[in-house]
Write a structure and sequence with these properties.
The structure holds two protein chains of two kinds. By secondary structure, chain A is an alpha+beta fold. The longest helix of chain A is centred in the middle third of the chain and has 30 residues, at 349-378. Chain B contains five helices and five strands; from the N terminus they run E-H-E-H-E-H-E-H-E-H. The longest helix of chain B has 13 residues, at 16-28.
Chain lengths: 728, 130
C-alpha cells in the first residue's frame, strides 16, 4: 500500500473514533455547541482526506453527514437523534470501506454511497415536513438576543407572539398584553408580513409580530399569557442561546480590531497621529473589555512606540498578534489541544511491533555474543577483555531499549473503552432495557497487547451485564430502582496490575440457581455441590459447560460465555473474579498485568509433541551427520568448532527412556545454559512465536524442566521448556 | 484612569429622535452623555471637555461626520485620538471605506439597536467586565 493511503487509513480511523465519541456525547447533550463543532470538524476532515486520496464515494457519503451538521449549525438548533443515527451509519460505512482498503491495499472501485445518500435524503425530507415552521422562525431568537444583549443575560424565556389579524375587533391590544406580562425585559415589534403600500393598508387588521424577553420562566409566561399563548412561541433562553450572545460579542470585538488594522493600513501620505493613536486606544480598549489585560497593555505600549517613532509596524503587529490570540476560553482550550497534538507523533502500530520484534532479535544476538566472549576467554585471546566490556555495555543498552519499547507500547484504556458507549447504546436498544454506561479511569494505561485483547472479553461482560444482570423494566420498577440501569466500567492501576471492573445495578446472581444449573448439566456431583461454599458455587459460572445450554439464559444472573472471558484473560496472564449481591447487582473484576512480557520462543517437536524453547537461550541450530555424534560413556556428544558439547535427545529425556541415538537424523539446537553449551536433538524445528509466558501452577508447578506454559491463539497450550533443567 | 468614573460619550446626530434614543440607552448602561447637532458643535464640545467616545452620524448639516473626523484626527493628541463610532444608513462598501479613511474606528449600519450600541460603546471605551 502506498504511504499516502496508509496514512489516510491511520488518520481516518482516528477521526472516525473521534466523531463517534462526539456524536454519542451530542446524543446525551444535544445543545453542546462545542461537541457539535468538533463532530462537524471531524466529518469535514474525514471528507478532506477522502478527497486527497480520491475516494469519491466516501466523500459523497461524508458530504451528506456534513450537510446535516451544517443545517443544525446554521439554524442554531440541536442535532436531531435521527441525524445522529444516520451519521453513525455513515461512519459504519466508512469503517467498512477502510477495512476493505486495508485488506486490498486499494480504494474499492465498486464503493457506492447510494445507501447513505438515500438515508440522509429521507431524514432531510422528514425534518422539513415536521420542523419547517419552526426552523424558519428560529432565527428570531438569536436576533432578539443579539439586539438586547444585556437583557439577554438575565432572560429566562423568549416569546414570539403573532396576534390574530382580527384581534382588534375583539377589543384586544396585543402590545399592552405583552407589556403587562410579569418580568418583561425587552420587546421588539415588527410586521408579520411586509407592510403593504399605504393605499392597500388595512388599519383594522393586525399585522404585528411581537418578540420579547422575560425574566420569568417559560411556564410562567405561558400561564400569564393564558389563551393567547396559542398564538405565541415561547422558548426557554438557556446558556446555549446566551452562548450565541457571547459569540456575538467576540465577533463584534474581532470586527472592531480588524477595522483598526484597516485604519493603520499604509496610505499615500503618512497617517495623522490622532488616527494612529485612536486605533491603538480602541484596540487596547476592546481587549480590556474582553478581559485580556496583558494583551491590552501590550497594544497600548506598542501604540506609544508607533507614535513616538512614526512607524506603524509595532502597533500593527501587536494588534495582529492579539487577533490571532484566543478570542474566547474555548479557543484557548483548542489551542492547547493543538499544542498537545504537536508533541506526539503518529506512528503505525505495525512499526512499533516491528521495533519490538527487532529488539527481541537483538537480545538473542546479544546472547550469542555473550557466548563468543566466553570462547574468547577460554582461548585466552587478547580480544577477551575488550569483548567482555563491550558485551556488558551492549547488555545494558539492550535492556534499556527493551524497557523503552515496552513503554512505547503503553496505551490508555480509552482506546479500548471508546467503542463501548456505542455498544451499550445498541444492546440497550436491542434488549429494550434503557441503560447508561459510566466510564471511569479511561486514562489508565496498559500494554498495547492488553488494551487490544481485552476488548472482546469486556464486550462479553458488558453484554452479560445488560442481558442477564439488568432486570426488565417491570421488575426494576417493582424493586424501586431507576428505570435507566447504570453499568459502570472502571479501570485503575494497582501496582504492577491493571484492574478493570464491570458493575451493574441489576438483580445479582442467585447462587441457588447456579447450583441447580450445575446439577442439571451434570457438571458436579450433588455431594460436591453441597460441600461448596457460595463463593465456590459462584465460580461454577466459569466452567465451560455452563455457558452453552439455553436454560442458562433463564438464570437471573450471568453465565453466558464466562469461560471464554476467563480463558481470554488468563491468556493475558490475568484473573477474573465475580462478586454479587442479591438484588443490588454484580461486579466482575478483571485483574491484568500492566506490561505483558512477551517471550519469544522457538517451537520444536519431540516425541510427537510441540514444545517451546525460549529463544534467548538458543545459540544456533544445525544438522550434523550421525558420524559426528559419538558416545562418551553412557552419554553422547558432538564436536562443534573443536568443542565437545553434550548431546541429549529431547524425546528421550522427556519420556525418561535411555538416551539411545538409533535415529540421529533430527536437527540439533545448541543452547547456552548457565554459561555452558548444550546440544539438544529434536525431531523437527518449527517457527518462532511471541508468547506470554505464564508460570505453571497447580499440579504441574513442581515438574522440573518446564519454564511455564502459554495459551495459544487456538486455545491450545504450549509447554515451554527450561532447557537448563532438561539437560540436567 | 479610575474605572469607576463614568465614560463620557458625545452623540453627534442632527436627528433629535436618534440622539434621544442613544442617550437613554447609554445613560441606562451607566454612560454620561452629551449631544451635538453637527460637526461644528461637536468640536466646540470637544475643546471644552474630554470624551471617551464619539457616536457620529454621517449626513449632517454644516459639517458632516466624515469632515468632522478628518478635522479631529489632524488636531493634537490626546484630543485627536478620541475613539469614534460612525453610524449611517448607508451600507455600501465604499461608504465604509470612506469613513475608515476619514479616521472612523468602526462603522455600523443603522438601525442600531440600543443593546448593540451599548455593547459597541463598552468595547470601544474599554469598560472592564464585571
Amino acid at each position: 500500500m502506498d504511504e499516502l493511503l496508509a496514512q489516510f487509513l491511520i488518520e481516518s480511523r482516528e477521526l472516525v473514533d473521534k466523531a463517534v465519541d462526539d456524536l454519542l456525547a451530542l446524543e446525551k447533550t444535544p445543545n453542546n455547541r462545542e461537541r457539535l463543532e468538533d463532530a462537524f470538524r471531524a466529518f469535514h476532515t474525514l471528507k478532506g482526506g477522502a478527497g486527497i486520496v480520491e475516494f469519491a464515494a466516501m466523500q459523497e457519503a461524508l458530504h451528506c453527514a456534513e450537510d446535516a451538521f451544517a443545517a443544525a449549525r446554521a439554524e442554531s438548533r440541536s442535532v436531531s437523534a435521527l441525524d445522529i443515527g444516520n451519521c453513525l451509519s455513515c461512519l459504519d460505512q466508512v469503517l467498512e470501506w477502510l477495512g476493505t482498503i486495508e485488506q486490498s491495499g486499494a480504494i474499492p472501485p465498486d464503493a457506492d454511497a447510494g445507501d447513505i445518500v438515500a438515508l440522509f435524503a429521507r431524514a432531510g425530507a422528514q425534518q422539513k415536513a415536521s420542523a419547517a415552521p419552526r426552523t424558519a422562525g428560529d432565527g428570531w431568537l438569536a436576533g432578539l438576543l443579539a439586539a438586547h444583549a444585556s437583557a439577554a443575560s438575565t432572560a429566562r424565556s423568549a416569546v414570539r407572539y403573532t396576534p390574530e389579524a382580527d384581534c382588534f375587533f375583539r377589543q384586544q391590544d396585543p402590545l399592552a398584553r405583552i407589556a403587562a406580562l410579569p418580568g418583561l425585559l425587552a420587546v421588539d415589534i415588527g410586521p408579520r408580513v411586509p407592510w403593504p403600500k399605504l393605499d392597500d393598508l388595512d388599519p383594522f387588521s393586525c399585522n404585528l409580530t411581537i418578540t420579547a424577553l422575560f425574566a420569568t420562566s417559560p411556564a410562567e409566561v405561558a400561564a400569564a399569557l393564558g389563551d393567547e399563548s396559542r398564538h405565541a412561541v415561547i422558548e426557554a433562553v438557556s446558556d446555549r442561546t446566551r452562548a450565541i450572545d457571547a459569540e456575538s460579542l467576540a465577533r463584534k470585538a474581532a470586527q472592531i480590531l480588524e477595522a483598526q488594522l484597516q485604519l493603520l493600513a499604509p496610505a499615500g501620505e503618512p497617517h495623522p497621529q490622532g488616527r494612529v493613536a485612536s486605533a491603538g486606544l480602541v484596540a487596547a480598549n476592546v481587549l480590556r473589555h474582553l478581559g485580556r489585560s496583558a494583551e491590552s497593555e501590550a497594544v497600548a505600549t506598542a501604540a506609544a512606540v508607533s507614535i513616538a517613532e512614526g512607524r506603524l509596524e509595532p502597533l500593527v503587529e501587536a494588534i495582529a498578534a492579539a487577533m490571532k490570540g484566543p478570542t474566547s476560553a474555548a479557543a484557548g482550550a483548542s489551542a492547547a489541544r493543538r499544542k498537545d497534538v504537536g508533541q506526539t507523533m503518529r506512528v503505525g502500530a505495525d512499526r512499533i511491533d516491528a521495533l519490538v520484534r527487532l529488539t527481541g532479535e537483538l537480545i538473542v544476538a546479544k546472547n550469542s555474543l555473550g557466548h563468543s566472549v566466553k570462547v574468547a576467554e577460554q582461548q585466552v585471546s587478547d580480544l577477551a577483555v575488550p569483548l567482555k566490556s563491550q558485551h556488558a555495555a551492549l547488555d545494558r543498552l539492550v535492556t534499556e531499549l527493551q524497557r523503552a519499547v515496552v513503554a512505547m507500547r503503553v496505551l490508555p484504556l480509552r482506546t479500548a473503552f471508546q467503542r463501548f458507549p456505542r455498544l451499550i447504546r445498541e444492546i440497550s436498544a436491542e434488549l429494550d432495557k434503557p441503560a447508561a454506561l459510566v466510564i471511569d479511569g479511561e486514562d489508565t494505561e496498559a500494554d498495547k497487547a492488553i488494551v487490544e485483547t481485552i476488548v472482546e472479553p469486556l464486550v462479553h461482560l458488558l453484554r452479560n451485564a445488560l442481558d442477564h444482570g439488568v432486570e426488565d423494566g417491570a421488575t426494576r420498577a417493582q424493586a424501586g430502582k431507576p428505570a435507566v440501569a447504570t453499568i459502570r466500567l472502571s479501570a485503575a492501576r494497582d501496582g504492577e496490575h491493571v484492574v478493570i471492573e464491570v458493575t451493574d445495578d441489576g438483580a445479582g446472581i442467585d447462587v441457588t440457581k447456579i447450583r441447580q444449573a450445575a446439577l442439571d448439566r451434570n457438571l458436579k456431583a450433588p455431594e460436591a455441590l453441597a460441600a461448596m461454599s457460595d463463593e465456590e458455587a459462584l465460580d461454577l459460572v466459569f466452567l465451560p459447560g455452563f455457558s452453552t445450554a439455553k436454560t442458562v439464559t433463564h438464570l437471573s444472573g450471568r453465565g453466558v460465555g464466562m469461560d471464554v472471558v476467563r480463558t481470554a484473560v488468563a491468556r493475558l496472564g490475568g484473573q477474573v473474579e465475580l462478586r454479587t449481591a442479591a438484588g443490588r447487582g454484580t461486579t466482575v473484576r478483571v485483574t491484568l498485568p500492566f506490561s505483558v512480557l512477551v517471550t519469544q520462543v522457538m517451537t520444536v517437536e519431540a516425541g510427537g509433541q510441540v514444545f517451546g524453547i525460549p529463544l534467548d537461550a538458543v545459540v544456533e541450530t544445525l544438522r550434523v551427520d550421525s558420524d559426528r555424534i559419538f558416545a562418551v560413556g553412557a552419554a553422547h556428544a558432538i564436536v562443534l568448532r573443536d568443542r565437545t558439547i553434550p548431546l541429549l535427545r529431547l524425546a528421550n529425556v522427556l519420556t525418561g527412556r535411555p538416551n539411545d541415538h538409533s535415529d540421529d537424523s533430527g536437527p540439533i539446537v545448541i543452547a547456552e545454559l548457565d554459561g555452558q553449551l548444550g546440544a539438544v536433538q529434536v525431531d523437527r524445528i518449527g517457527g518462532r512465536m511471541d508468547i506470554i509466558l505464564k508460570p505453571l501452577d497447580g499440579l504441574l508447578a513442581g515438574v522440573p524442566g518446564l519454564a511455564g506454559s502459554a495459551l495459544l491463539g487456538d486455545g491450545g497450550v504450549l509447554l515451554v521448556l527450561d532447557l537448563a533443567e532438561v539437560v540436567q | 484612569m479610575a474605572d469607576d468614573t463614568p465614560k463620557r460619550v458625545l452623540v453627534i446626530d442632527d436627528a433629535t429622535l436618534v440622539r434621544r434614543y442613544y442617550r437613554s440607552a447609554l445613560e441606562r448602561a451607566g454612560f454620561e452623555v452629551a449631544e451635538a447637532l453637527n460637526g461644528v458643535e461637536a468640536l466646540e464640545h470637544l475643546l471644552a471637555a474630554r470624551f471617551d467616545l464619539l457616536v457620529v452620524d454621517v449626513n449632517m448639516p454644516q459639517m458632516d461626520g466624515l469632515s468632522f473626523l478628518q478635522t479631529l484626527r489632524a488636531k493634537s493628541l490626546p484630543l485627536s485620538s478620541t475613539p469614534a463610532l460612525v453610524t449611517s444608513t448607508e451600507s455600501a462598501p465604499q461608504r465604509i471605506a470612506a469613513a475608515s479613511a476619514a479616521g472612523a474606528n468602526f462603522y455600523v449600519v443603522k438601525p442600531l439597536h440600543a443593546e448593540a450600541l451599548v455593547q459597541y460603546a463598552s468595547l470601544l471605551c474599554g469598560i472592564r467586565h464585571g
